[in-house]
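Internal ticket #5521
Category: modeling
Description: The requester needs a full-assembly model to guide mutagenesis choices. All entity lines are attached below as received. Residue total reported by intake: 626.
Assigned to: D.W.
Attached entities:
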Amino acid sequence: MAVANPPRTAGDTKVVAPNESPASKGDRTVTVVSHIVLTLWSIIVILPLVWVFLSSWKTTGEIFSSPLALPQHWSFDNYVKAWNDSNIGRYLLNSVIVVTCSLVLVMILGAAAAYSLARYPFPGSGIVYYLILAGLTFPIFLAIVPLFFVLKNAGLLNTLPGLIATYVAFAFPFTVFFLYPFFRALPQEIAEAAELDGAGEWRTFAQVMLPMARPGIVAIAIFNFLGLWNQFLLPVALNTNESNYVLSQGMARFASQAGYAVDFGQLFAAVVITIVPVLVVYIFSQRQLQGSLSQGTLK
Amino acid sequence: MSAVVATAPPQAAGKVARRRRRRMPWSRRVFVLVTLGLPFAFYAVFVLWPFVQAFIYSLTNWSGFSDTFEFVGLANYKALLQDDIFLKAVRNNLLLALVVPFVTIALSLALATMVTVGGSSTGAVRGLSRSSFYRIVSFFPYTIPAIVIGLIWSQMFDPSSGLVNALLTGIGLDQFKSFAWLGEVTTAMPVTMFVIIWGFVGFYMVLFIAAIKGIPAELYDAARVDGAGRLRMTFMVTLPMVRETIQTAYVYLGILALDAFVYMAALNASGGPQNSTLTMTQDLFNTAFKKGQFGMASAMGVFLAVVTLLFAAVVFLVNRLTKGKDR
C-alpha cells in the first residue's frame, strides 16, 4: 500500500527516458491538441474568477454599464462595505469558529473510534461498523426534519454549539470509514512491542500508532475541512438566527435577494473574500495536498 | 470518496479474531468504551436516531406545530406519487443523476489522459510537458464553496451584466443580448448542469491522474509493442485499470446530483422557469420548513434515500456485468 516500494509507473518514465528522439508527426499533433484542449479548460476555469476579481473593484453602476470594462478606480470601498454592511466579517468569524471546533473534535473522535474498531474487535463490532457505514449511505436530507427537533428539544437550535455538534456527527462516519483501513494496515507487532515496554492502551494509541497513520489523518482532515467549510444544508435548516450565520449562509442571502436590493459590488467583493484565503493556502501547498488526497482516496 | 468501496468488516481478519478468544482485560474495555462507545453514542443520537425517526414520521400527518399526530399509513407516499410538482422534481433529479456524473467523469478522464500520456510516443510512455499548470488550475473550483460557485455563475449568466452574454454579443451573436440563460425552460437545466460539472472536473481529474500514474508502465509498453495506438491504449489499458475509481466517482457524483440543493439555491432558488430545475431536495425543504408538513417532508426524504440507494446499486451492478470477460 502506501508504504510499499512503488513499481515503475507511467508517470515516472519522464525521468527514465529523457532521450529526445524527434517526435513523429502524429505525436506532435496529439501533443499540440492536448495542450489546446487543456488550455481551453484552464481558461474556462480561470476566466470567471478573474472577472469576479475585476468586478469586485467596480461600482454597481459600472458593473451594469459594461461587464467587460476594467474598473475605473481601484478603491477598497466594496470590500469595506461587504465586510461591515453585509456582515461578511462576522459570518467569516462564525465559520472559522464552527469549522475549527468541529474539525478538531471530529478528528479526535473519528481517529479514536477507527483505531479502536480496527484493533480491538469484540462481538458486535461488525454491527457497529455497518451502522457507521449506514450514516454515509443515507442522504442528510432524510435526517434533517427529525434533526431539527432533536436540536430544538436539546435547546441547541440556532446556536453555534448545536451547529458544531451536527457537523461533528455528520463528518464522523466518513472519518471513521476513511481511517479504518489505515489503522488496519498498521503492523500489530509494533503496538505489541510498545505494550511490552509498558505503554498502556492510551499511550500506544497516541504516541505510537496515531503518528504512523499520519498520511491518512492529513488527507481526511483536508476532506473534512473542505466539506465543513462548504456545508450548506445544516446551517440553513438548523441555524436561522442571523447573528449566528456562517459564511455560506451570508453568501446565500445575496442569491435569495436576487436582483432587488443587491449591491453587486459588495457581492463580488464578498465572493473574493470567501475564495481567496482557501485558494492561497491551496496554491502554496498544492503538491502535498493533491498528493495526500489522491493517495488517501485510492487506498 | 472511498465512501462506497466497502472494506472488510472487523470480524473478517482471522489473525485478530484468534486473539479475541482471550478475554479483554479491563483497562482495554475501558479504552474501547471511551474511544469507540462515546463517539458512537453521540453519532447515534445526532445521525442514526433522526434517520429512524424520519421513517416513523413519514407514516404520520404531523404538521410540526401540534404535539399530536396520527398514523396515516402510506397515505403520504400515495399523495407524493400523485403530486405533479414532486414528480417533476424526481424527473429533474434523475436527469441530473444521468448527465452530471457521466459528463464529469468523461471530461475529467479525457483531461487526465492527456496530461499523463499525451507526450511523445517514442521511447517510454510519458506525460505532457509543463502539465502541472493545468493540474493546479483545474483544481481551483474544488476549493470554492458550492454556494459561491453558484453565485459566480449566476452572475456570469446574468442577462444584462453577465460576462457570457457580453462575450457572445461581442463576437457578433446579437441574439444573446439580454438572453436569460437561467430564465428559459430550454437552457436553465443545461446551464445548471454545466455549473455543477465545472465545480467537479478538476477534482476528479486529479484523482484520475493519480490512478493512471499508478498503472504499471509495463502494461503500456507491452500494448505498444503489440502495436496499439493511443486510442486503443486508452480503452484497453487505462479504462480497465481505473475502473474502481470510476465506480466510486460515479456513485459519489450521483448522490451529489440527487441532492444538488445548494447549487439550485444559488442559481434558481424558486425552482426555475416552470419548475424546470426544481429538485426533490428543494421540494422537501419547502414542504418542511415553509409549509410545516413534516410528515410529508419525511416521506420525501425516505423516497430520496431509496432513489439514492437504488442509484448506487445500479452502478455496482453495471460495473459487475460489464467486467465479465476478464474475470
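Resolution: model delivered.
Comment from assignee: DSSP finds 14 helices and no strands in chain A.
Ticket closed.
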